[in-house]
Design a protein that fits this description.
Radius of gyration: 21 Å
Order of helices and strands: HHEEEEEEEHEEEHHH
Helix content: 25-40%
Strand order of the largest sheet: 4-1-10-6
Structural class: alpha+beta
Distance between the termini: 41 Å
Strand content: 15-25%
């Protein structure tokens, strides 16, 4: 897998600017921060986990330590770095799958919590204010299994890798070159060319990401079943 150093060398060759390693590294990191906010399948993760605590409704982090993903994600994933949740359930009880949970809007979540507040196995969750909340309130010890899209880690060393370096290297290079040309060379014409190419590559990445995910052409054979 390419490293940040590999991407820097490519950009430096493109621009004939081997004298700007620090600036190029900075813009590589910014390019990755920009891409990690895009809801692409490259940063999907299956199997984030969270153990609930008695009486604690809201949580700031979930565990990515045992999750499966193309991207490098931290062991503890801050909830604000979860871009979307595609599946959630309470964990497995022996050989039996337990509750599949439904994501609901925050206002409905708080409405359900008004008055009496039952505790027990959660059936609903919400994302709001940088936290994830569960209803009914947990009795404690429930294991939650989540899959979705998260922001991967930013490569901050020369040896660091990134799923974007591996899957969309030219996109990272174009985003980086555009900013270096604009900021450090004051060459907006050159920067504009790189930006147009980056926009085209990002569009291609989004289309590929969409084609890898479920579409209307795939029939949900589980519709009508109650879990």
């Amino acid at each position: 897998m390419p490293t940040r150093l590999d991407i820097r060398n490519v950009v430096a060759d493109m621009l004939s600017r081997t004298d700007l390693p620090v600036q190029i590294d900075r813009e590589i990191e910014r390019a990755v921060r920009y891409l990690r906010s895009e809801n692409l399948d490259l940063s999907e993760i299956r199997g984030m986990t969270l153990t609930l605590v008695n009486g604690q409704v809201y949580y700031d982090t979930v565990s990515g330590a045992t999750g499966e993903s193309l991207a490098t994600v931290p062991a503890d994933i801050p909830v604000p770095d979860i871009l979307s949740v595609q599946y959630a359930r309470e964990g497995e009880d022996g050989a039996n799958l337990r509750n599949v949970m439904e994501q609901i809007p925050y206002h409905r979540f708080e409405y359900m919590r008004e008055g009496s507040r039952p505790t027990g196995e959660p059936y609903f969750f919400t994302l709001y204010g940088g936290q994830i909340g569960f209803f009914p309130g947990p009795a404690g010890g429930e294991e939650i299994f989540l899959s979705g899209v998260v922001r991967p880690q930013v490569p901050e060393t020369d040896a660091a890798t990134s799923v974007y370096f591996d899957e969309t290297p030219e996109l990272v290079e174009m985003l980086t070159a555009a900013q270096v040309s604009h900021k450090y060379e004051q060459d907006d014409q050159r920067a504009s060319g790189f930006s147009r190419r980056a926009a085209s590559l990002l569009g291609m990445a989004k289309r590929v990401s969409s084609s890898r995910r479920s579409t209307g052409r795939i029939r949900d054979t589980l519709s009508g079943f109650n879990f």
